[in-house]
Amino acid sequence: xxxxxxxxxxxxxxxxxxxxxxxxxxxxxxxxxxxxxxxxxxxxxxxxxxxxxxxxxxxxxxxxxxxxxxxxxxxxxxxxxxxxxxxxxxxxxxxx
Length: 96
Hints:
- The structure is a single chain.
- By secondary structure, the protein is an all-alpha fold.
- The chain folds into 2 domains: 1-48, no CATH class; 50-96, Arc Repressor Mutant (Orthogonal Bundle).
- The protein has helices spanning 14-18, 34-44, 55-68, 72-95.
- The longest helix is centred in the C-terminal third of the chain and has 24 residues, at 72-95.
- The chain starts with 13 loop residues before the first helix and ends with a helix.
- The model has no long low-confidence stretch (mean pLDDT 85).
């Protein structure tokens, strides 16, 4: 029986992967199977979604992401995560 891959070891390096400090060289890239892709998403706690944004907003976000050295999807994830954390902290302060 084939051993299930453990992607948890990459959790500490997520930022390095997203900024392409790791894995950015195409000569080392290969397409993963749908099964491997799902296992990686599951281990990172990621869920693929579909969202419609205004074209101008998306263009602006892509430009901002490029200045930060990120792809636009990781950049949007970063913005949403930061907002959710700050909103959660504010809510806790308000109820204390």
